[in-house]
Amino acid sequence: MSQVEPLIRLTVHGAAGRMGQRIVALAAKDPQLSIISAIDSPSSPVAGRDAGELAGIGKLGVPITSAISSSTDVIIDFSTPEATVKLMAICAERRIPVVVATTGLNEEQKQEIAAASQFAPIVFAPSMSLAVNVAMKLVREAAKALKDIPDGVDVEIIERHHRFKEDAPSGTALKFGQIVAAEMGQTGHTHGREGQTGKRPQTEIGYHAVRTGDNVGEHQILFGLMGETLEVYVRGHTRDSYAYGALAAAKFLAGRPAGLYTMADVLGL
Ligand SMILES: NC(=O)C1=CN([C@@H]2O[C@H](COP(=O)(O)OP(=O)(O)OC[C@H]3O[C@@H](n4cnc5c(N)ncnc54)[C@H](O)[C@@H]3O)[C@@H](O)[C@H]2O)C=CC1
Ligand SMILES: O=C(O)C1=N[C@H](C(=O)O)C[C@H](O)C1
Questions:
Q1: In a domain, 58, yes or no
Q2: Is 184 annotated as a binding residue?
């Protein structure tokens, strides 16, 4: 007789936000998951509203609240850096597995995540998208292959997002830059260019953050050589590309030991 796996009890942190609503909508349809709480800011204007109704899928019986249930098996966090740091203290203390998808954290805030991962398993990644994580592998390969080209290679990263995004460059663009620099050795960076900039040094990576309309996320990584350009381009069509990845990460964490995991671990890349 086949054994029925118990449902994974999920808390959504940042549940009233753009991503939080998609997590609620997709998790509600997932036969392995049960949404037990939907957390948002204590000052949220939608506190008390039903999370399902807010996400456009009808009543779920889970209100938007600010208190994390002690019976949660895993938390998915799409919120703000400050809220993520507060969440880390709770997850470490209660040993709750958590998927951290929030971006824009400074080094000190990232240290809080690393510290919490000594007590609880944590997936921390700037992009939960499968396509983006595959693109990261391709970019690493390209950087490796191009690192010793005699005339040098200029690397520029262009990212495009919606007008509501609060951090720049995107966490994903910064991660692409780290991957390139680890292979090619660039030590500097520049954000956009203006005026008499002088010649471009190959020791820097250029970042360009475009903010327009409702763009859910595009990244272009350019390797400029003399005579040709290699371009890796990855484009999201809907936020569900990130949401499905976050749900996979939540399932991956069930039963894992404490530690810091990446989406490459989740996706087996
Ligand atoms: N890793 C990934 O794949 C992705 C990461 N993101 C990142 O996720 C974050 C959220 O993105 P969006 O949903 O577009 O933003 P959003 O602004 O729509 O949602 C953030 C939510 O967090 C809530 N919040 C604020 N303080 C809180 C607190 N103390 N406790 C709980 N919730 C709190 C806000 O009220 C809001 O509802 C951003 O940092 C974004 O860059 C977004 C998409 C994909
Ligand atoms: O804010 C967003 O929307 C996104 N943020 C993430 C980032 O900063 O990299 C991931 C994705 O590109 C969407």
A1: yes
A2: no
Q: At residue 197, what are phi and psi to the nearest 5 degrees?
A: -80, -15
Identify whether 165 is a catalytic site residue.
yes
Nearest-angstrom CA–CA distance, 116 and 2: 36
pTM of the model: 0.97
Closest listed residue to residue 171, CA positions, set 132, 223, 113, 143: 132
Please indicate, yes or no, if residue 28 is contained in any of the structural domains: yes
The answer on 99 and 172 residing in a single domain is no
How many domains does one find in the chain? 2
Rounded to the nearest angstrom, the distance between the alpha carbon of 170 and the centre of ligand 2 is 6
Mean per-residue pLDDT, 31-57: 97
How much is the ipTM here?
0.99
The answer to whether residues 15 and 124 belong to one domain is yes
Q: Which of 13, 161, 175, 208 is catalytic?
A: 161
Q: First vs last Cα of the chain: how many Å apart?
A: 34
Mutate to test the pocket of ligand 2, among 106, 158, 161, 219 (most ligand atoms within 8 A of CB): 161
Query: Structural domain of residue 181, as residue ranges?
Result: 130-235
- Same domain flag for 212 and 178: yes
